[in-house]
Design goal:
This protein is an alpha+beta fold and 562 residues long. The protein folds into three domains: 175 residues, Formiminotransferase-cyclodeaminase, Chain B, domain 1; 166 residues, Formiminotransferase, C-terminal subdomain (Alpha-Beta Plaits); 209 residues, Formiminotetrahydrofolate cyclodeaminase monomer, up-and-down helical bundle (Four Helix Bundle (Hemerythrin (Met), subunit A)). 52% of the residues lie in helices and 14% in strands. It contains 17 helices and 13 strands. Strands 1, 2, 3, 4, 5, 6 and 7 form a seven-stranded mixed beta sheet that branches. A four-stranded antiparallel beta sheet has the order 11-12-8-13. Strands 9-10 form a two-stranded antiparallel sheet. Helix 1 runs antiparallel to helix 2, helix 2 runs parallel beside helix 3 and helix 15 runs antiparallel to helix 16. It starts with a strand and ends with a helix.
Length: 562
Protein backbone atom coordinates (compact mmCIF):
# COMPACT_ATOMS: atom_id res chain seq x y z
CA UNK A 1 0.00 0.00 0.00
CA UNK A 2 1.39 3.38 -1.03
CA UNK A 3 2.46 5.69 1.80
CA UNK A 4 1.18 9.26 1.48
CA UNK A 5 2.01 12.42 3.38
CA UNK A 6 0.77 15.96 3.02
CA UNK A 7 2.91 19.09 3.26
CA UNK A 8 1.42 22.50 4.11
CA UNK A 9 4.18 25.13 3.87
CA UNK A 10 3.30 28.76 4.66
CA UNK A 11 5.29 31.30 2.66
CA UNK A 12 5.72 34.92 3.72
CA UNK A 13 4.34 36.35 0.49
CA UNK A 14 0.68 36.80 -0.32
CA UNK A 15 0.59 39.78 -2.65
CA UNK A 16 2.98 39.08 -5.49
CA UNK A 17 1.51 36.04 -7.23
CA UNK A 18 4.43 35.80 -9.65
CA UNK A 19 6.63 34.85 -6.69
CA UNK A 20 4.11 32.33 -5.41
CA UNK A 21 3.79 30.80 -8.87
CA UNK A 22 7.54 30.32 -9.13
CA UNK A 23 7.47 28.46 -5.81
CA UNK A 24 4.49 26.26 -6.73
CA UNK A 25 5.94 25.58 -10.18
CA UNK A 26 9.00 24.20 -8.41
CA UNK A 27 6.81 21.87 -6.36
CA UNK A 28 5.10 20.57 -9.50
CA UNK A 29 8.40 19.59 -11.10
CA UNK A 30 8.60 16.60 -8.74
CA UNK A 31 6.94 13.41 -9.97
CA UNK A 32 4.80 11.65 -7.38
CA UNK A 33 3.56 14.92 -5.88
CA UNK A 34 0.25 16.67 -6.52
CA UNK A 35 -0.38 20.33 -5.74
CA UNK A 36 -3.81 20.51 -4.07
CA UNK A 37 -4.32 24.10 -3.02
CA UNK A 38 -2.74 27.59 -3.08
CA UNK A 39 -4.35 30.09 -0.69
CA UNK A 40 -2.81 33.61 -0.70
CA UNK A 41 -3.77 36.32 1.80
CA UNK A 42 -3.36 40.05 1.10
CA UNK A 43 -3.64 41.30 4.67
CA UNK A 44 -1.46 38.56 6.13
CA UNK A 45 0.97 38.78 3.17
CA UNK A 46 1.19 35.02 3.45
CA UNK A 47 0.31 32.04 1.24
CA UNK A 48 -0.63 28.58 2.45
CA UNK A 49 0.25 25.85 -0.07
CA UNK A 50 -0.93 22.25 0.19
CA UNK A 51 0.54 19.32 -1.70
CA UNK A 52 0.54 15.56 -1.18
CA UNK A 53 2.45 12.55 -2.41
CA UNK A 54 4.81 9.75 -1.49
CA UNK A 55 7.21 10.64 1.36
CA UNK A 56 10.57 10.95 -0.40
CA UNK A 57 9.02 12.92 -3.24
CA UNK A 58 7.20 15.26 -0.84
CA UNK A 59 10.46 15.89 1.02
CA UNK A 60 12.20 16.72 -2.26
CA UNK A 61 9.41 19.08 -3.33
CA UNK A 62 9.36 20.76 0.09
CA UNK A 63 13.12 21.32 0.01
CA UNK A 64 12.98 22.83 -3.49
CA UNK A 65 10.09 25.09 -2.45
CA UNK A 66 11.96 26.33 0.64
CA UNK A 67 15.05 26.92 -1.50
CA UNK A 68 13.07 28.90 -4.09
CA UNK A 69 11.34 30.94 -1.37
CA UNK A 70 14.70 31.81 0.20
CA UNK A 71 15.85 33.11 -3.19
CA UNK A 72 12.74 35.20 -3.89
CA UNK A 73 11.52 36.49 -0.51
CA UNK A 74 13.46 39.06 1.52
CA UNK A 75 12.24 38.98 5.13
CA UNK A 76 13.92 42.31 5.93
CA UNK A 77 11.24 43.92 3.75
CA UNK A 78 8.27 41.79 4.80
CA UNK A 79 5.22 43.13 6.62
CA UNK A 80 1.91 41.36 7.28
CA UNK A 81 -0.80 40.76 9.85
CA UNK A 82 0.18 37.14 10.59
CA UNK A 83 2.99 36.16 12.98
CA UNK A 84 6.06 35.00 11.01
CA UNK A 85 9.82 34.61 11.26
CA UNK A 86 10.90 33.19 7.91
CA UNK A 87 10.47 33.27 4.15
CA UNK A 88 9.12 29.75 4.55
CA UNK A 89 7.58 30.38 7.93
CA UNK A 90 6.33 26.90 8.75
CA UNK A 91 6.53 23.58 6.91
CA UNK A 92 4.48 20.85 8.58
CA UNK A 93 4.28 17.26 7.33
CA UNK A 94 1.04 15.36 7.85
CA UNK A 95 0.37 11.59 7.68
CA UNK A 96 -2.38 10.80 5.17
CA UNK A 97 -2.27 7.07 4.38
CA UNK A 98 -0.37 3.93 5.43
CA UNK A 99 2.23 5.81 7.47
CA UNK A 100 2.64 6.41 11.20
CA UNK A 101 3.32 9.69 12.93
CA UNK A 102 6.66 8.28 14.09
CA UNK A 103 7.67 7.75 10.47
CA UNK A 104 6.53 11.25 9.53
CA UNK A 105 8.64 12.69 12.35
CA UNK A 106 11.68 10.97 10.82
CA UNK A 107 10.92 12.57 7.47
CA UNK A 108 10.46 15.96 9.14
CA UNK A 109 13.88 15.69 10.77
CA UNK A 110 15.40 14.58 7.46
CA UNK A 111 13.90 17.63 5.72
CA UNK A 112 14.92 19.97 8.55
CA UNK A 113 18.51 18.70 8.48
CA UNK A 114 18.79 19.16 4.73
CA UNK A 115 17.35 22.69 4.78
CA UNK A 116 19.61 23.69 7.64
CA UNK A 117 22.79 22.26 6.17
CA UNK A 118 22.33 23.04 2.47
CA UNK A 119 20.49 26.38 2.67
CA UNK A 120 22.00 27.73 5.93
CA UNK A 121 18.56 28.45 7.35
CA UNK A 122 18.02 28.01 11.13
CA UNK A 123 15.39 25.31 11.72
CA UNK A 124 13.16 24.82 14.75
CA UNK A 125 11.21 21.54 14.95
CA UNK A 126 7.69 21.77 16.39
CA UNK A 127 4.57 19.74 17.20
CA UNK A 128 5.30 15.98 17.08
CA UNK A 129 8.76 16.64 15.57
CA UNK A 130 9.84 18.84 18.50
CA UNK A 131 13.10 17.87 20.16
CA UNK A 132 12.23 19.64 23.43
CA UNK A 133 8.79 19.85 25.15
CA UNK A 134 8.50 23.64 24.95
CA UNK A 135 9.15 23.64 21.21
CA UNK A 136 6.07 21.53 20.53
CA UNK A 137 4.23 24.87 20.62
CA UNK A 138 4.69 26.78 17.35
CA UNK A 139 3.96 30.11 19.02
CA UNK A 140 6.87 29.50 21.41
CA UNK A 141 9.27 28.72 18.55
CA UNK A 142 8.17 31.84 16.67
CA UNK A 143 8.11 34.18 19.69
CA UNK A 144 9.66 37.56 18.90
CA UNK A 145 9.00 36.87 15.21
CA UNK A 146 11.52 37.89 12.54
CA UNK A 147 12.29 41.20 14.27
CA UNK A 148 13.43 39.43 17.46
CA UNK A 149 15.29 36.60 15.73
CA UNK A 150 18.65 38.36 15.47
CA UNK A 151 18.89 38.93 19.22
CA UNK A 152 17.62 35.54 20.40
CA UNK A 153 19.27 33.11 17.98
CA UNK A 154 22.70 33.36 19.63
CA UNK A 155 21.34 32.45 23.07
CA UNK A 156 21.94 28.83 24.17
CA UNK A 157 18.24 28.18 24.83
CA UNK A 158 17.41 29.31 21.30
CA UNK A 159 19.99 27.25 19.42
CA UNK A 160 18.25 25.89 16.31
CA UNK A 161 17.58 22.16 16.07
CA UNK A 162 19.25 22.15 12.65
CA UNK A 163 21.20 24.69 10.66
CA UNK A 164 23.40 27.55 11.84
CA UNK A 165 22.90 29.47 15.08
CA UNK A 166 23.33 32.62 13.03
CA UNK A 167 20.90 35.24 11.77
CA UNK A 168 19.88 34.83 8.14
CA UNK A 169 18.70 38.31 7.25
CA UNK A 170 16.80 37.43 4.08
CA UNK A 171 15.41 33.93 4.77
CA UNK A 172 14.92 34.26 8.52
CA UNK A 173 14.15 30.92 10.20
CA UNK A 174 11.78 28.07 9.42
CA UNK A 175 9.70 25.84 11.69
CA UNK A 176 9.52 22.26 10.38
CA UNK A 177 6.97 20.04 12.05
CA UNK A 178 4.91 16.88 11.99
CA UNK A 179 1.27 17.11 12.96
CA UNK A 180 -1.97 15.27 12.56
CA UNK A 181 -4.30 15.88 9.64
CA UNK A 182 -6.64 18.80 10.27
CA UNK A 183 -10.25 18.26 9.24
CA UNK A 184 -12.39 21.34 8.69
CA UNK A 185 -16.04 20.35 9.03
CA UNK A 186 -19.36 22.14 9.45
CA UNK A 187 -22.33 20.49 11.13
CA UNK A 188 -25.65 21.79 9.77
CA UNK A 189 -28.41 22.43 12.30
CA UNK A 190 -32.19 22.64 12.08
CA UNK A 191 -32.09 26.20 13.41
CA UNK A 192 -31.26 29.72 12.26
CA UNK A 193 -30.03 30.74 15.74
CA UNK A 194 -26.34 31.61 15.86
CA UNK A 195 -26.52 31.81 19.65
CA UNK A 196 -27.78 28.24 19.95
CA UNK A 197 -25.19 27.01 17.46
CA UNK A 198 -22.47 28.77 19.43
CA UNK A 199 -23.70 27.28 22.70
CA UNK A 200 -23.52 23.83 21.12
CA UNK A 201 -19.98 24.57 19.88
CA UNK A 202 -18.96 25.55 23.43
CA UNK A 203 -20.43 22.28 24.75
CA UNK A 204 -18.04 20.18 22.68
CA UNK A 205 -14.90 22.15 21.77
CA UNK A 206 -11.85 21.31 23.86
CA UNK A 207 -11.51 24.86 25.20
CA UNK A 208 -15.10 24.81 26.38
CA UNK A 209 -16.69 27.95 27.84
CA UNK A 210 -15.86 30.46 30.59
CA UNK A 211 -17.44 29.90 34.00
CA UNK A 212 -19.77 32.79 34.89
CA UNK A 213 -21.30 34.04 38.12
CA UNK A 214 -25.09 33.79 38.25
CA UNK A 215 -26.46 33.95 34.70
CA UNK A 216 -24.52 31.45 32.52
CA UNK A 217 -24.79 33.80 29.53
CA UNK A 218 -24.50 37.34 30.86
CA UNK A 219 -22.89 36.74 34.25
CA UNK A 220 -19.44 37.99 35.10
CA UNK A 221 -16.64 35.58 34.18
CA UNK A 222 -15.05 33.97 37.23
CA UNK A 223 -11.32 34.39 37.83
CA UNK A 224 -8.78 32.18 39.59
CA UNK A 225 -6.36 33.40 42.27
CA UNK A 226 -3.98 34.64 39.56
CA UNK A 227 -6.70 36.63 37.82
CA UNK A 228 -7.06 34.30 34.83
CA UNK A 229 -10.45 33.32 33.46
CA UNK A 230 -11.83 29.99 34.67
CA UNK A 231 -13.01 27.66 31.91
CA UNK A 232 -15.14 24.52 31.79
CA UNK A 233 -13.66 22.27 29.10
CA UNK A 234 -15.80 20.76 26.35
CA UNK A 235 -16.16 17.07 25.64
CA UNK A 236 -14.09 16.67 22.46
CA UNK A 237 -10.31 16.83 22.73
CA UNK A 238 -8.30 18.23 19.82
CA UNK A 239 -11.17 20.35 18.50
CA UNK A 240 -11.90 24.03 17.99
CA UNK A 241 -15.43 25.19 17.20
CA UNK A 242 -17.76 28.17 16.87
CA UNK A 243 -21.36 28.64 15.81
CA UNK A 244 -22.43 30.82 12.88
CA UNK A 245 -25.22 31.45 10.39
CA UNK A 246 -24.68 30.78 6.69
CA UNK A 247 -26.74 33.03 4.40
CA UNK A 248 -26.09 30.77 1.40
CA UNK A 249 -27.80 27.82 3.07
CA UNK A 250 -30.14 29.65 5.42
CA UNK A 251 -29.09 27.56 8.43
CA UNK A 252 -26.83 27.81 11.44
CA UNK A 253 -23.80 25.57 11.68
CA UNK A 254 -21.26 24.41 14.21
CA UNK A 255 -17.98 25.07 12.39
CA UNK A 256 -15.23 22.82 13.73
CA UNK A 257 -11.55 22.16 13.16
CA UNK A 258 -10.54 18.68 14.31
CA UNK A 259 -6.83 19.10 14.96
CA UNK A 260 -6.25 15.60 16.30
CA UNK A 261 -8.23 12.96 14.39
CA UNK A 262 -6.59 10.22 16.46
CA UNK A 263 -8.16 11.57 19.64
CA UNK A 264 -11.41 12.68 18.00
CA UNK A 265 -12.30 10.88 14.75
CA UNK A 266 -14.93 12.52 12.55
CA UNK A 267 -17.65 10.01 13.45
CA UNK A 268 -17.04 10.53 17.17
CA UNK A 269 -17.43 14.29 16.73
CA UNK A 270 -20.64 13.74 14.76
CA UNK A 271 -22.19 11.49 17.41
CA UNK A 272 -21.16 13.75 20.30
CA UNK A 273 -22.58 16.88 18.68
CA UNK A 274 -25.74 14.96 17.80
CA UNK A 275 -26.14 13.96 21.44
CA UNK A 276 -25.50 17.46 22.77
CA UNK A 277 -27.79 18.96 20.10
CA UNK A 278 -30.72 16.74 21.09
CA UNK A 279 -30.39 17.95 24.69
CA UNK A 280 -30.82 21.50 23.42
CA UNK A 281 -33.78 20.63 21.23
CA UNK A 282 -31.66 20.71 18.09
CA UNK A 283 -30.75 18.17 15.42
CA UNK A 284 -27.87 17.79 12.97
CA UNK A 285 -29.36 17.71 9.48
CA UNK A 286 -26.09 17.08 7.68
CA UNK A 287 -22.34 17.49 7.60
CA UNK A 288 -20.17 19.54 5.26
CA UNK A 289 -16.50 18.63 4.75
CA UNK A 290 -14.43 21.69 3.86
CA UNK A 291 -11.52 20.79 1.60
CA UNK A 292 -10.16 17.26 1.34
CA UNK A 293 -10.19 14.30 3.69
CA UNK A 294 -8.11 11.09 4.02
CA UNK A 295 -9.82 7.89 2.90
CA UNK A 296 -9.23 6.24 6.29
CA UNK A 297 -11.35 8.90 8.02
CA UNK A 298 -14.37 8.09 5.85
CA UNK A 299 -13.81 4.32 6.02
CA UNK A 300 -13.50 4.42 9.82
CA UNK A 301 -16.77 6.35 9.97
CA UNK A 302 -18.57 3.95 7.66
CA UNK A 303 -17.37 0.93 9.65
CA UNK A 304 -18.41 2.62 12.89
CA UNK A 305 -21.97 3.11 11.70
CA UNK A 306 -22.14 -0.40 10.21
CA UNK A 307 -21.07 -1.81 13.58
CA UNK A 308 -23.78 0.22 15.34
CA UNK A 309 -26.27 -1.42 13.00
CA UNK A 310 -24.70 -4.84 13.75
CA UNK A 311 -23.96 -5.32 10.07
CA UNK A 312 -20.86 -6.86 8.50
CA UNK A 313 -17.90 -4.55 8.03
CA UNK A 314 -16.47 -6.81 5.34
CA UNK A 315 -18.02 -5.04 2.37
CA UNK A 316 -16.46 -3.01 -0.43
CA UNK A 317 -14.92 0.43 0.06
CA UNK A 318 -17.70 1.90 -2.07
CA UNK A 319 -20.37 0.46 0.22
CA UNK A 320 -18.58 1.61 3.40
CA UNK A 321 -18.20 5.14 2.00
CA UNK A 322 -21.88 5.18 1.02
CA UNK A 323 -22.84 4.27 4.61
CA UNK A 324 -20.60 7.07 5.94
CA UNK A 325 -22.15 9.61 3.56
CA UNK A 326 -25.71 8.67 4.47
CA UNK A 327 -25.04 8.30 8.21
CA UNK A 328 -23.52 11.76 8.60
CA UNK A 329 -25.49 13.51 5.85
CA UNK A 330 -22.38 14.44 3.89
CA UNK A 331 -24.63 15.05 0.87
CA UNK A 332 -27.11 17.26 2.75
CA UNK A 333 -26.28 20.58 1.07
CA UNK A 334 -24.60 19.33 -2.10
CA UNK A 335 -23.43 15.98 -3.50
CA UNK A 336 -20.42 14.40 -1.80
CA UNK A 337 -18.28 13.18 -4.70
CA UNK A 338 -15.71 10.78 -3.23
CA UNK A 339 -13.39 11.12 -6.22
CA UNK A 340 -13.18 14.88 -5.58
CA UNK A 341 -13.13 14.93 -1.76
CA UNK A 342 -10.99 11.94 -0.76
CA UNK A 343 -7.27 12.58 -1.18
CA UNK A 344 -6.29 9.08 -2.30
CA UNK A 345 -9.03 8.98 -4.95
CA UNK A 346 -7.99 12.38 -6.25
CA UNK A 347 -4.42 11.14 -6.66
CA UNK A 348 -5.55 7.93 -8.34
CA UNK A 349 -7.58 9.91 -10.86
CA UNK A 350 -4.58 12.16 -11.54
CA UNK A 351 -2.24 9.23 -12.07
CA UNK A 352 -4.69 6.87 -13.72
CA UNK A 353 -3.47 4.29 -16.17
CA UNK A 354 -5.09 1.45 -18.09
CA UNK A 355 -5.49 -1.21 -15.43
CA UNK A 356 -6.78 -4.70 -16.08
CA UNK A 357 -8.90 -4.63 -12.94
CA UNK A 358 -10.71 -1.53 -14.19
CA UNK A 359 -11.95 -3.41 -17.25
CA UNK A 360 -15.36 -5.05 -17.52
CA UNK A 361 -15.47 -8.84 -17.44
CA UNK A 362 -15.92 -8.90 -21.22
CA UNK A 363 -13.07 -6.46 -21.82
CA UNK A 364 -10.74 -8.46 -19.59
CA UNK A 365 -11.62 -11.72 -21.38
CA UNK A 366 -11.19 -10.11 -24.79
CA UNK A 367 -7.84 -8.61 -23.84
CA UNK A 368 -6.65 -11.98 -22.57
CA UNK A 369 -7.81 -13.69 -25.75
CA UNK A 370 -6.04 -11.16 -28.00
CA UNK A 371 -2.69 -11.62 -29.71
CA UNK A 372 -0.92 -9.68 -26.94
CA UNK A 373 1.15 -11.93 -24.60
CA UNK A 374 -0.13 -10.04 -21.56
CA UNK A 375 -2.21 -10.50 -19.52
CA UNK A 376 -1.15 -14.11 -19.24
CA UNK A 377 -1.37 -17.01 -16.84
CA UNK A 378 0.02 -15.06 -13.89
CA UNK A 379 -2.66 -12.37 -14.07
CA UNK A 380 -5.38 -14.97 -14.62
CA UNK A 381 -4.15 -16.94 -11.60
CA UNK A 382 -4.31 -13.83 -9.42
CA UNK A 383 -7.80 -13.07 -10.71
CA UNK A 384 -8.99 -16.64 -10.07
CA UNK A 385 -7.74 -16.34 -6.50
CA UNK A 386 -9.50 -12.98 -6.10
CA UNK A 387 -12.75 -14.56 -7.28
CA UNK A 388 -12.29 -17.53 -4.95
CA UNK A 389 -11.66 -15.28 -1.94
CA UNK A 390 -14.64 -13.14 -2.99
CA UNK A 391 -16.89 -16.19 -2.88
CA UNK A 392 -15.72 -17.03 0.64
CA UNK A 393 -16.26 -13.41 1.63
CA UNK A 394 -19.76 -13.48 0.16
CA UNK A 395 -20.65 -16.51 2.30
CA UNK A 396 -19.33 -14.68 5.37
CA UNK A 397 -21.51 -11.65 4.62
CA UNK A 398 -24.57 -13.80 3.94
CA UNK A 399 -23.95 -15.62 7.21
CA UNK A 400 -23.63 -12.31 9.06
CA UNK A 401 -27.12 -11.33 7.90
CA UNK A 402 -28.78 -14.74 8.15
CA UNK A 403 -32.09 -14.56 10.07
CA UNK A 404 -31.68 -16.14 13.48
CA UNK A 405 -27.91 -15.71 13.46
CA UNK A 406 -27.98 -12.07 14.62
CA UNK A 407 -25.80 -12.78 17.66
CA UNK A 408 -23.05 -14.07 15.36
CA UNK A 409 -22.81 -11.00 13.06
CA UNK A 410 -19.43 -9.93 14.45
CA UNK A 411 -17.92 -13.41 14.04
CA UNK A 412 -18.73 -13.44 10.34
CA UNK A 413 -17.93 -9.75 9.90
CA UNK A 414 -14.32 -10.47 10.92
CA UNK A 415 -14.07 -13.21 8.29
CA UNK A 416 -15.54 -10.89 5.67
CA UNK A 417 -13.10 -8.09 6.57
CA UNK A 418 -10.20 -10.51 6.21
CA UNK A 419 -11.57 -11.60 2.85
CA UNK A 420 -11.99 -8.06 1.55
CA UNK A 421 -8.39 -7.21 2.41
CA UNK A 422 -7.07 -10.37 0.75
CA UNK A 423 -9.25 -9.81 -2.31
CA UNK A 424 -7.85 -6.29 -2.76
CA UNK A 425 -4.27 -7.58 -2.49
CA UNK A 426 -4.95 -10.21 -5.14
CA UNK A 427 -6.55 -7.69 -7.48
CA UNK A 428 -3.39 -5.62 -7.20
CA UNK A 429 -1.39 -8.71 -8.25
CA UNK A 430 -3.53 -9.07 -11.39
CA UNK A 431 -1.91 -5.92 -12.77
CA UNK A 432 1.43 -6.43 -11.05
CA UNK A 433 2.03 -9.66 -12.98
CA UNK A 434 1.66 -7.73 -16.25
CA UNK A 435 3.96 -5.02 -14.86
CA UNK A 436 6.61 -7.67 -14.18
CA UNK A 437 6.29 -9.00 -17.74
CA UNK A 438 6.72 -5.48 -19.12
CA UNK A 439 9.86 -5.03 -17.01
CA UNK A 440 11.41 -8.01 -18.78
CA UNK A 441 10.45 -6.66 -22.20
CA UNK A 442 11.91 -3.25 -21.31
CA UNK A 443 15.14 -4.87 -20.15
CA UNK A 444 15.50 -6.80 -23.40
CA UNK A 445 15.01 -3.52 -25.26
CA UNK A 446 18.03 -1.85 -23.64
CA UNK A 447 21.03 -1.03 -25.89
CA UNK A 448 23.79 -3.66 -26.11
CA UNK A 449 26.57 -2.00 -28.12
CA UNK A 450 29.39 -1.40 -25.64
CA UNK A 451 30.60 -3.81 -22.99
CA UNK A 452 29.16 -1.53 -20.30
CA UNK A 453 25.78 -1.48 -22.05
CA UNK A 454 25.83 -5.25 -22.40
CA UNK A 455 26.57 -5.66 -18.70
CA UNK A 456 23.85 -3.20 -17.75
CA UNK A 457 21.34 -4.93 -20.03
CA UNK A 458 22.23 -8.37 -18.67
CA UNK A 459 21.78 -7.18 -15.07
CA UNK A 460 18.47 -5.50 -15.91
CA UNK A 461 17.18 -8.73 -17.50
CA UNK A 462 18.18 -10.72 -14.42
CA UNK A 463 16.58 -8.19 -12.04
CA UNK A 464 13.36 -8.13 -14.08
CA UNK A 465 13.25 -11.94 -14.31
CA UNK A 466 13.73 -12.25 -10.57
CA UNK A 467 10.86 -9.84 -10.00
CA UNK A 468 8.72 -11.77 -12.49
CA UNK A 469 9.42 -14.89 -10.43
CA UNK A 470 8.60 -13.25 -7.12
CA UNK A 471 5.24 -11.78 -8.18
CA UNK A 472 3.52 -15.12 -8.98
CA UNK A 473 5.11 -16.60 -5.85
CA UNK A 474 3.38 -13.89 -3.82
CA UNK A 475 0.18 -14.75 -5.71
CA UNK A 476 0.63 -18.38 -4.61
CA UNK A 477 0.93 -17.38 -0.97
CA UNK A 478 -2.03 -15.01 -1.09
CA UNK A 479 -4.19 -17.55 -2.94
CA UNK A 480 -3.29 -20.14 -0.29
CA UNK A 481 -4.48 -17.74 2.44
CA UNK A 482 -7.89 -17.83 0.76
CA UNK A 483 -8.37 -21.47 1.83
CA UNK A 484 -8.72 -20.41 5.46
CA UNK A 485 -11.79 -18.32 4.64
CA UNK A 486 -13.33 -20.89 2.28
CA UNK A 487 -12.83 -23.73 4.76
CA UNK A 488 -14.31 -21.77 7.67
CA UNK A 489 -17.35 -20.83 5.60
CA UNK A 490 -17.80 -24.43 4.43
CA UNK A 491 -17.72 -25.58 8.04
CA UNK A 492 -19.69 -22.89 9.92
CA UNK A 493 -21.10 -20.51 7.29
CA UNK A 494 -24.62 -20.27 5.92
CA UNK A 495 -25.40 -23.86 4.82
CA UNK A 496 -27.40 -22.56 1.86
CA UNK A 497 -24.15 -21.19 0.42
CA UNK A 498 -21.81 -24.05 1.17
CA UNK A 499 -21.26 -24.77 -2.54
CA UNK A 500 -20.06 -21.19 -3.03
CA UNK A 501 -17.37 -21.83 -0.44
CA UNK A 502 -16.49 -24.99 -2.37
CA UNK A 503 -16.16 -23.15 -5.67
CA UNK A 504 -14.01 -20.59 -3.86
CA UNK A 505 -11.66 -23.38 -2.75
CA UNK A 506 -11.46 -24.71 -6.32
CA UNK A 507 -10.50 -21.24 -7.56
CA UNK A 508 -7.80 -20.88 -4.89
CA UNK A 509 -6.29 -24.27 -5.72
CA UNK A 510 -6.23 -23.51 -9.45
CA UNK A 511 -4.70 -20.11 -8.71
CA UNK A 512 -1.90 -21.67 -6.64
CA UNK A 513 -1.13 -24.23 -9.34
CA UNK A 514 -1.33 -21.69 -12.17
CA UNK A 515 0.91 -19.17 -10.40
CA UNK A 516 3.43 -21.95 -9.65
CA UNK A 517 3.77 -22.64 -13.37
CA UNK A 518 4.85 -19.00 -13.82
CA UNK A 519 7.27 -19.24 -10.90
CA UNK A 520 8.95 -22.28 -12.44
CA UNK A 521 9.24 -20.99 -16.00
CA UNK A 522 10.67 -17.64 -14.88
CA UNK A 523 13.04 -19.21 -12.35
CA UNK A 524 14.65 -21.25 -15.14
CA UNK A 525 16.10 -18.05 -16.60
CA UNK A 526 17.80 -16.95 -13.36
CA UNK A 527 21.58 -17.15 -12.94
CA UNK A 528 21.14 -17.12 -9.17
CA UNK A 529 20.47 -20.85 -9.00
CA UNK A 530 20.19 -20.97 -5.20
CA UNK A 531 17.42 -18.37 -5.23
CA UNK A 532 15.70 -20.18 -8.10
CA UNK A 533 15.81 -23.58 -6.38
CA UNK A 534 14.69 -22.16 -3.02
CA UNK A 535 11.64 -20.45 -4.50
CA UNK A 536 10.72 -23.56 -6.53
CA UNK A 537 11.02 -25.77 -3.42
CA UNK A 538 8.82 -23.39 -1.41
CA UNK A 539 6.33 -23.20 -4.25
CA UNK A 540 6.13 -27.00 -4.51
CA UNK A 541 5.36 -27.20 -0.79
CA UNK A 542 2.57 -24.62 -1.10
CA UNK A 543 1.12 -26.41 -4.13
CA UNK A 544 1.02 -29.76 -2.30
CA UNK A 545 -0.70 -28.21 0.70
CA UNK A 546 -3.19 -26.42 -1.58
CA UNK A 547 -4.16 -29.66 -3.35
CA UNK A 548 -4.67 -31.39 0.01
CA UNK A 549 -6.69 -28.51 1.46
CA UNK A 550 -8.91 -28.24 -1.59
CA UNK A 551 -9.69 -31.97 -1.28
CA UNK A 552 -10.48 -31.58 2.43
CA UNK A 553 -12.82 -28.63 1.81
CA UNK A 554 -14.61 -30.40 -1.04
CA UNK A 555 -15.26 -33.38 1.24
CA UNK A 556 -16.89 -31.02 3.76
CA UNK A 557 -18.98 -29.42 1.03
CA UNK A 558 -20.12 -32.68 -0.53
CA UNK A 559 -21.13 -34.14 2.83
CA UNK A 560 -23.39 -31.11 3.41
CA UNK A 561 -25.15 -31.26 0.04
CA UNK A 562 -26.02 -34.97 -0.06
Amino acid sequence: MKKLIECVPNFSEGRDMSIIKQITDTIETVDGVKLLDVDPGQATNRTVVTFVGTPDEVIEAAFLAVKKASELIDMSKHHGAHPRFGATDVCPLVPVANISMEEVVEYAHKLAKRIGEELNIPIYCYESAAKTPERKNLAYCRSGEYEGLKDKIGKPEWKPDFGPAAFNATAGATAVGARDFLIAVNFNLNTTSTRRANALAFDVREKGRPVREGNPITGKIKKDEKGADIWTPGTLKGTKAIGWFIDEYGVAQVSMNITNISETPLHVAFDEISDKASKRGLRITGTEIVGLIPKKTILDAGKYFLAKQERSLGVSEEEIIKIAIKSMGLDDLKPFVAEEKIIEYLLEAENCSNKLIDMTCSEFANETASESPAPGGGSISAYMAALGVSLGTMVANLSSHKPGWDARWEEFSKWAEKGQKLKDELLHLVDEDTVSFNKIMDAFGLPKGTDAEKAERKQAIQDATKYATEVPFITMKKAFEGFEICKAMAEVGNPNSVTDAGVGALCCRSAVMGAFLNVKINAVGLEDKKFAQDIIDQGAEIEAKAIALEKEIMEIVNKKIV
